[in-house]
Amino acid sequence: MTDTTRTIIVAEAGVNHNGKLGLALELVDRAAEAGADYVKFQTFKGARLACGTAAKADYQKVTTDAAETQLEMLRRLELSPEAHRALIERCAARGIAFLSTAFDLESLAFLAGELGLKTLKLGSGELNNGPILLAAARSGMQLMLSTGMGSLSEVEEALGVVAFGLLRTGTPKGRTDFSEALLDPAAWSALRARVTLLHCTTEYPAAVEDTNLRAIDTMRQAFGLPVGYSDHTQGNAMSIAAVARGARVIEKHFTLDRTMTGPDHAASVEPGELAALVRDIRAIEAGLGDGIKRPGPAEIRNRPIVRKCVVAARDIPAGRILTLDDLTSKRAGGPIPAMALWDCIGRRSRIALAEDTALDWSAMAWAD
């Protein structure tokens, strides 16, 4: 992520394939057509992710069979290794990068080892999952880490785990090892080279008033790392605002049809909305500029037309010593800017000037 002017756009297909490879492949196609940089799925083994007694979140009870357990739902939404390879092949054919979130150590090893992915996403639920953070750090992959549900101190501790994994070998003896790892002079340069944090509100859909986009600035200032935004709100406004605040990555859930049954469809945008988001983000990037306040080429062409210059407020005879009453400012394309009106007072007009004539320095001389 060396280009600081281009926002990486991740189309989060997630589990919106409903466990069907054909639907997942179509999600790849639509994400590519929308112009996203990545299409992201989720890699997990249901039995390694949740216990049989684990409850569903409220939003999952509304959008899926309420009688189904979380484990049953997850098993139904798993993607097989063969499905992953088929998706990677389709991504290559469509010119979009494949990305996935690992939810357990076995899945992380599969993404890093068998599939050889260069980038890994970890969801907000892993922010305090030391073992998977350590494995991610040692996987060699670039890491996008969502920070939903977390405090600034929890984000710092997670970064300590990653720093420990990047800089040290062996097994940590305890949590103090992580805080000590951050004191290593090499820690922050190593983290900057490998980690992007994602601000996130872990609710589906998330309310706009719970978004707190200023946390993007807070994390960037606190840690000096690139920060993006994983958007769970409805619509595109918060993603667009996040880019304007400097988000380096935008992750947005998308689906083929928001009315489909499944845990994440209702909080997702449809393909047309995703394409609009990509267009708007690229327009914002073009408009942000370099921050130097100066006139652009079009403005320079317009300055003589729009800006006012010094003109005669009334007919002025040759030889008259100019007073304030002789002068005014209007649009006339003259060479003396209105800011210099007072510099003309006390000079003698060399020639007669009709009212509304633009003054020129060569037509004036200092009075004797």
TrEMBL record:
Top-rank taxon: Bacteria
Protein name: N-acetylneuraminate synthase
UniProt cross-references to NCBIfam families, sorted A to Z: NeuB_NnaB
Pfam families named in the record: NeuB (PF03102), SAF (PF08666)
Protein source organism: Thioclava marina
Record-annotated AFP-like domain positions: 309-367
